[in-house]
Amino acid sequence: MQSLNCELQATQQSRDGGIDHQGSWILPDLEVEVVTQCKNESKPVGVHYVREFHGVLSFFSPTTVGLFASTSGYSLYAQRFFLRMTHPAILCTVDTDSSRLTSFLLNDRARTLLPKLTVGSLFVNQEHTLMLTYGDKILG
């Protein structure tokens, strides 16, 4: 997320309350508070982790964006629950080899809070790359 101008600080594990990082995402005309949870597991993240994250987000401002990052994707039930969350949130998947984002999904609340943020794809040399834009600016 650092390449996307996200300034995050790791939380102390014993007191993090389910949050791994906290900080700000500095966009061209907006600064958004962000909290993250990260999972590095062999299987897709299950719905119980996303439910727990939703509960933790209730302790933060309604304009704080929750970003859940995984290296193994998400179960169908986790994705369905995520789309119904009442707090602005993003689900993303990170490739462990390249550290690139391979998926980036915003729920309705996050799309409302970040209306200029767009997720797209770029194909170069038969390789798919995820691309984020904010207004007319390419992020990353």
TrEMBL record:
Residues 2-84 form the Restriction endonuclease type IV Mrr domain. One of its GO terms (biological process) is DNA restriction-modification system. Its main location: mitochondrion. One of its GO terms (cellular component) is mitochondrion. It is found in: Mitochondrion. One of its GO terms (molecular function) is DNA binding. Keywords: Mitochondrion. This is Restriction endonuclease type IV Mrr domain-containing protein. It comes from Phytophthora palmivora. The lineage of its organism: Eukaryota, Sar, Stramenopiles, Oomycota, Peronosporomycetes.
